[in-house]
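Proteins fold reproducibly. Next comes an illustrative record:
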Amino acid sequence: MAVAGPEAMEWLEPAAVRVPDAVSEAVGGHPVVARALVRRGLCTVHEVLAYLDPSKYRPSSPWELPDMDKAVERLQQAVEPGDAILVWGDFDVDGIAATALLVEALVGLGARVFWHVPNRERESHGLNWRSLQPFLGRGVRLLLTCDTGVSSGAIVLQAQSLGLDIIITDHHDLPEVLPPALALVNPNLLAEDHPLRHLSGAGVAYKVAEALGAGDRGLDLAMLGLVADVVPQLGDVRYLVQCGLRAVRFAPRVGLSALAEVADVNLAEIDEGTIGFSLAPRLNALGRLADASSGVQLLLERDLAKARTIAAEAEALNVRRQFLSRQVTAAAEEQLIRAQGAATAPIIVLSHSQWPASVLGIAASRLVERYARPVVLIATPEGQSARGSARSLSGLDIREILAAQGDLLESFGGHPMAAGFSVDANQVPELKRRLELTVGSLAGDHIPEPELAIESYMSLAELTLGLAEDLERLAPFGPGNPPVHLATHNLTVKSWRAIGRTGEHRSLKLQDDEGHTASASWWYCSGLPVPQGRFDLAYVLRVNRFQGERSVQLEWIDTRGAQAPAAELQTVVALPETADYRSLREPLPALRALSEEGKAQVWAEAAVLEGVDARTRIQLTESPTLVVWTSPPSVRVWASGLAKVRPELVCLFAVDPGLDESGSFVLRLAGLVKHALEAYAGRLTWDALAAAMSHRVETVQTGVDWLASRGQLTIVSTGPESAIVQRGGDSQPELTRALEARLVELLRETTAYRRHFREADAETLVRVDGVVLR
């Protein structure tokens, strides 16, 4: 979440861009989505489809990672005779997820496995000789690290002298001298533009498990680590996050379900934001304030009652973590106020003897967001080494900045954007002086203003649920793939209220000159002034999901003084005309009359219309007239159909296909699946099945899963585009109940949209909640 603060952002105005017709047609939906893709360098149909649909992306082979062959060969040598393997992880979410992933994969292959995650307070990051020794006495002769180890060269040498083989899998920056491990699997050894270059520790662990033959097991854990470690959403990272999110939505593991319960999160609608701001912090709290081993156990747990016990502990610790983080952030800001010029120095360096080291990184991140400059916070407990956490901005590599002070530091490590270190407390003043000199020489007289690329200027009237849902297609968001930033001119704050446990956020009602209003959320803004008078707002358009209802929500990013709207270079297109037949008691004669004219294309799904050339969504082609006989199941299906036809006239009938009740839905679905078993050897194509059912793909997938959970089917294989099923299977009553509840929820959503489609103004419908069609 970006936060507007004392340092203003430089708004980059949307540049003119030409969207190739083929790309526009392939993307469909609102033109702003296609323009955003082209501005991100995706200019061909192949590129945009691979970006939007993971089934169109070709992931890299795990064997492209250096030393993967050596690592797999040695692990297989240990698995077959049952030699003990020790998996050594790290105490952040990425390390916890990587540890659980490798343990689960190795146990699944029949290996004898021990695992260890260091205690943050007693051991810190990396290998620890005192903690390693007891495992040697238990017969461990192979050590496999994950998310750690690349900077533990001395201990690697010591362990090898006792006959221990060591495989290091890590993603942290490489030291000048690499550890002499049997194998070093680290994506930093790849070329800068390699699709695997930005894998996190859990991402690397997943590729190791894949090379071992574990299949796609662990996708959810890989996604968890990749999102929590805030690595660039590029190449295989984006693909793994997309697939991992889908895995969690459809078949969450017990530990994540328990964690979602205490966080009040609906896993069926989970996204990267929910992971980053709800689940990951709770999992991280275990490692920050207690023992990260509980986090590994939670992810491996299969007993829901035991998982709930650990999740409750995580929730309690997270509340304490939030309290401590707020305390440190407030104390640091008080120091900034007292220290003249500190807030405008090239780097903010603050220290205190009472600060808990475990939450310094969180507080430093808050200050970077607010003051737009690198931040280093240092805990200086009496009689101990000082420990610091550093966070930075794009373009200022904080690890390299710390490396320049290596002669002062006892240890350090991390990434360009985040790093940690320990230092003699007596050296803290000198470290501060040298850090300011180093960053000052790199950045010049001032830190440049952070840039904010504006994708499009929109009026409040254009900010509709359809547009918000269409923008979600660009997710998952993160570094390398930021969310689309929109902006609106000439707004005023009509009202606002503080929200959050301590009022750290605000909910605002905004109004434009035409009287249109919108709701906005402004995160971590306590202490910042609410704009007075008219202003321009930059924001991210979100879908707010609350108690089963969906609405539009603006996420406040930055403001500036109101400016005259600039003409945006884009195609202005007329909307199609409409003819409204929805109120007819006997609509069929009117349909036949339109069909006989020969120019109309009839869109009808799950309907028998004798003598009418009716088509489903996958059969639609460009035509001057579109007759909409059955109500579409969602705004996305509706927008996609209109984008295919590009009509000049839309004739609306909006007949209910009668398949939104669970009984009629399941009866028809079972019949179509039976036909696929008899005619197509059990192959189900999701798009065709959804069209035949007049429902969303997600709904029919859930229905098929429900049939399988009842033992009526076995799903032999499944993917984003199709599945293969066969008759019979094992009944799973608990899963059946969960899937039935999810199916009912999806059917209700479709019922609500069809009602909207029957009742909404015709011109509103052809705008597709703001989508320009032609």
Notes: The two ends are 34 Å apart (CA to CA). The chain is about 40% helix and 20% strand. The CA atoms of residues 180 and 712 lie 55 Å apart. The first helix runs from residue 21 to 27.
